[in-house]
Every structure is written in C-alpha cells, then in structure tokens.
Amino acid sequence: MRSGSYVKQPTDYRAFIPANLPPDPAINLDAELLKLLSDADRALGRLDGVATVLPNPDLFVAMFVRQEAVLSSQIEGTQSTLQDILAYEADSEQTTQPGDVEEVVNYVAAMNHGLRRLPELPLSLRLMKEIHEKLLHGVRGSEWSPGDFRKSQNWIGPQGCTLATADFVPPPPHEMMQALDNLEHFIHDRESLPVLIQCGLIHAQFETVHPFLDGNGRVGRLLITFLLCEREILQRPLLYLSYYLKARKAEYYDRLMAIRISGDWESWLKFFLRGVYEVSISATNVARQIMEMREQHRHLISTEITAAANAHKLLDHMFEKPTFSINQAKDVMGCAFATASSVVERLEKMGLLREITGQERNRLYQYQPYVSVFQKLMPAEEEGKSA
Question: What's the CA angle centered on 191, arms 185 and 197, to 5 degrees?
C-alpha cells in the first residue's frame, strides 16, 4: 500500500493504482542512502564546475545529447548507433541509414525543445505532452496520439500478451489523471526532499503511471535531465543516465517493479543515486578529455598548417557537428570549394579526419578522435556495433 495497490477492474483484469508522492511512510534515509546521496551530489557539483570552464560548452553538449538519444532509444529497441545519427545529420538523403534513425533524431529534437522551453514553461504536464509530440512525430508510434495522454488502458509485457497475462498494468485513464495531477504538484514541491531523491521518485512514478500509449521510457528519462536543469543543479545538460540504465537494463526494470510489488522505494533510490554518481564521474572525465583534445589539436593545426584560420574555424565547428561533407565545410569556413577540399585533405593526412563512406562521390568526413571518445562510452555490447 505504500506505493499503491492492484485493483480488479470491471473487465476482470488487475491494474495498479499508484499512491501519491511523497511516499508514506517517508523515505528511510539510512546511512547507505545518505552516503550515496552525498557522493552523487559532489559528483554532480564537479561536473557542473567543469562545464563552466569548457570553451563554448553548448558545442560539447550537442554530443552528450546525441549519445543519450542513441542509448535511451536503444533501451526501447531501436538499432541505430551514434555513427548512424551523425551520418544522418550530415546527409539525411542517404539510402543506407537504418529505418529507425529518425526516432533517435526525434529524441534529440525533443531534448532540445524541452531545454529551450524550460525558462518560459516550468516542468509540467503541458511540457511533457509537448516533448512527447516531438518524440513521436512521423516515426514508429506516431499513430498512438503523440502529445496526448492516453484515453485507453495500456499494459507492459512480452509481445502477444493480454491484459490478463501482462507483467504490469498501469492505472486506467481516470486514475491515471489523478496520479498525474499529484505528480505535477510533487514536481513543483521544492521543500520536502533533496532534489536527487525527488528526481528518482519522479522518474519511477512517471514510469508506473505510464501516461502515453508509447514513448513513456524515453520521456521519463528526459524528465531527469529537465528537472536538474530547471533546479539549476546543472547549468548545462551534461548528465544522462541511459548509459547506466542500458548496461543494467534487467536491474532497472526489477527495481521499478519492486516499488510496485513491495513499496521498496529505498532500493530503487540507491540504484538511481549510484547511477548519478557513476555517470557524473564519467561525464566529468570526458569533458576534461575534450578540453585537452581541443588544445592539442589547435596547437597541431597551428604548427602544421601555414594559413591556419580556416582550419581552426572548421575544428570549432566539428565539436558540434563532427560529420560533414566538403560542401558543408566550405560553408562553415566561408571559402571556395577547392580551398575547403584542401583543408579537409590536410586534416585527414594529420589524422584528425576520416572519410567514412568509402565512396567517390557524396563523401562524408568525420572528426574521428572526438567521436571515438563517445563511442568508447557505449556499453560493452554496443562497442563493436558503434565503432
């Protein structure tokens, strides 16, 4: 009863009706949970501090967002990799792209839309619906009312299961709206609990309510980043938990189910805080690595290229869009095609760029040392696929 209860419905299936947040009895902040909270807070603080010294941090954020989009979408069954989305962004007309790459592109658009809206619209049910509409626009699941909360019963389980055999049945629409109303009030409560505890509770409750017919997992994970940015815990959206959750997918789902079955919020929160700590440490190291790489490559360009201004301009652009064509490089540098081609060829010989299509025409080049930093962050099962 602490997290809710299963209630038999008129058509003879049992749906879970969640209890209101915060939990009652209150979260037991035992010694282990307090230490995990302290460690996660400190790690987040270091990550936020590193972001403040990054040269043009918004350029670097773009790659973190793409990595999160790939991993969060892979949790839900997409096959597209980081390499796929970078190639798609550089040339969306390519016929060799996986069919689900647009789902990942939509995730990036949903993330960026939410971040743009936060200064003018607080994290709310309205913003959740806007994010959902962006996420499912024109892709798999677009037939399931993008941007609208469900008006019918959904369920979770293996393919082909029914309401009677599902692993989990969220609340019916009427109870769902009551639970969402409580969730929105809890999101706006800035006094009751530490932000990271609140963040973990909100994510788990959202997944339990499952208010959309599709896309709940991805929206729920976006809420974590949005809340941390809205509360100014992070000045830049550099914390993404999908790496941690994908690598521990079975435990992720088991911890959420344990809340529903036995009201075990504490074990879920410990799992969640370990993730915040681990991912914060990893992201901090990546940010420092990128700063060192930028300085090394700027020095290399200044040393190896006589007229280095165009190459420096392209290098800065590559931190935001590391895959591009020569025509795109020409536009970035504001020079003739022959000049752009010469700069790209020189950077390729220096080992900073790699041609990735193997074609004679419509070639694409990639800032490989930079992309490799993020590919190495993929869970082990994905490394070969993403390389």
Answer: 80
DSSP code, position 156? B
Find the mean pLDDT for residues 74-92.
85
Does residue 210 carry a catalytic annotation?
Answer: yes
Last residue of a domain, one of 236, 254, 285: 285
The mean per-residue pLDDT over the stretch 273-282 comes to: 96
**What does the pLDDT look like over 222-250, one tens digit per residue?**
999 999 999 999 988 888 899 899 999 99
Q: Which residues contact 67 (CB under 8 A, 6 or more apart)?
A: 82, 240, 243, 374, 377, 378
Task: Read off the pLDDT of residues 340-380 as tens digits, 9 standing for 90 and up.
Answer: 999 999 999 999 999 998 888 889 999 999 999 988 876 65
Annotated binding site for ATP: 76, 210, 214-221, 252-253
Range of the structural domain that residue 127 is part of: 4-43+53-285
Structural contact between residues 359 and 322, judged by C-beta atoms closer than 8 angstroms: no
Coil, helix or strand for 4?
A: strand
Residue 2 Cα to chain centre, angstroms: 30
Classify residue 48: in a domain, yes or no: no
Same domain, 264 and 353: no
pTM reported for the whole predicted model: 0.90
Residue given tokens 């209101």 in the structure block: 20
**pLDDT number for residue 96:** 57
Is the four-CA dihedral 346, 348, 351, 353 of positive or negative sign? positive
- The residue annotated as part of the active site, out of 203, 210, 297, 317, is 210
Of 233, 239, 319, 321, the closest CA to residue 280 belongs to 239
Residue 199 · residue 187 · CB < 8 Å:
no
